[in-house]
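Recap from last week: sequence in, structure out.
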Amino acid sequence: MKMLEILEAAIGAVLTHGICFSGGPIRDPIPLPLPAEAEMLGSVSVRRQREFAWGRYHARQALRQLGFAPVPILRKVDRAPLWPSGVIGSISHSSSHGGAVVGRSNTVLALGLDIEDQEPLGADLAPIICTPAELERAEWCSGRSGPGLIFAIKEAVYKSYAPATGEFLDFHDVCVRISDQSSSFEAEIINSEKPAIFGSRTINGVYFPFVGGVVALAARFRHM
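Predicted structure tokens:
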């Protein structure tokens, strides 16, 4: 199975709240962005064009699964994607893969997606990214992603948290616990000066290692 099929099946099985995902390798030929997107992007490097175009392509594919017609996905002042009314979403890419995840705002409060390369982090970076408790537990040692998994999870958490609260998190503001058996995680906002997100200080999610990298998805749902 290709990465796209594996992740769509995994996300669909783990998160049963109508979340739709699209993703795959960044390659040539580059899908054409819509005219309004191309105008917004302006003159950038070929690499940036490729990353942007594939991100928007996967965003539209995910929206199509959710029942939305293709629309330009522009960006807010803070450069976050501007989704259609009633949609919560997130776009991410590594150097080799890109993807997007979307859900309806009547069931989903926050979404954050992060895709990282399968590159080991240097030992000097681990204490910067991981809290002392995370380093002591070293839950990520059982997988090939190493502390890079903690990095991906925290990036996904930050991307779900910032749009919902208007606040930004540092690496040590969040402490992550991983369940290797279920490929899930719980991230706790341990910095008491940071606000809760929709009345909670925890954000849950799932992660999926694949050949070439790892994907992490953080989410908060409305009570059904």
